[in-house]
Amino acid sequence: MVLMVADCTEQAAGVYHREARSGKYKLTYAEAKAVCEYEGGHLATYKQLEAARKIGFHICAAGWMAKGRVGYPIVKPGPNCGFGKTGIIDYGVRLNRSERWDAYCYNPHAKECGGVFTDPKQIFKTPGFPNEYDDNQICYWHIRLKYGQRIHLSFLDFDLEDDSACLADYVEIYDSYDDVHGFVGRYCGDELPEDIISTGNVMTLKFLSDASVTAGGFQIKYVAVDPLSKSSQGKNTSTTSPGNKNFLAGRFSHL
């Protein structure tokens, strides 16, 4: 059924990205439109997507917009996303509405799942916390602070499906503004992870749940720290967490 094929990822200024549960680039224009309307919204216009981009909405995935247009918002340019440019990477109005892309919906009243943070401190949670999160969710949180600051990440509560391989429900952390570079690690289970400190002023967190078994979710707090302060001398992203049995370490490289 069309209305059950997509998952919410990230939201800003009422705009959020949707992708099919079966993977990236699986929605026709009609399917993308139906998904947005089912949730009480509609496909975002180019202007709505650009307004979201201006406050930090960044997704490296092309999606349908209103009137059959396709594109994606880039805040921070990179060699593997956006052709090194910023702005809306615009593929134009597609003549073939059967092409398969993701979708950008607009609904200022949609359930929060992910977000973009620029404040010096913030607490964010899995959707519905302290109640259990839903199946088949994908949420992204982007943190972008002032240049020269670092991000001190602390886990206040943590309860995801227990899986020694972390292949079911998990949260991934990246020391970058996307989920392509700077992979720090993947966490699951109910053991509270150690604090993490970024090497720069940006971080990305990705939460994913599969089609069965849910748990209580998590609360995560971050604060901006000066590189020379004592609070920035904790666990760095380049270290691993051998004490946590449900942890997959990344091959970290400095940005």
TrEMBL record:
Top-level taxon in the UniProt lineage: Eukaryota
CDD domains: CUB, Link_domain_TSG_6_like
Domain Link: 14-107
PROSITE patterns for this protein: CUB, LINK_1, LINK_2
Record SMART domains: CUB, LINK
Ranges for domain CUB: 113-225
GO BP field: cell adhesion; negative regulation of inflammatory response
Cross-referenced InterPro entries: C-type_lectin-like/link_sf, CTDL_fold, CUB_dom, Link_dom, Sperma_CUB_dom_sf, Spermadhesin-Link_domain
Disulfide partners: 36-105, 60-81
GO molecular function, one term: hydrolase activity
Self-association and partners: Interacts (via Link domain) with inter-alpha-inhibitor (I-alpha-I) component bikunin. Interacts with ITIH2/HC2; this interaction is required for transesterification of the HC to hyaluronan. Interacts (via Link and CUB domains) with ITIH1. Chondroitin sulfate may be required for the stability of the complex. Interacts (via Link domain) with various C-X-C and C-C chemokines including PF4, CXCL8, CXCL11, CXCL12, CCL2, CCL7, CCL19, CCL21, and CCL27; this interaction interferes with chemokine binding to glycosaminoglycans.
Protein name per its UniProtKB record: Tumor necrosis factor-inducible gene 6 protein
Native source organism of the sequence: Physeter macrocephalus (Sperm whale)
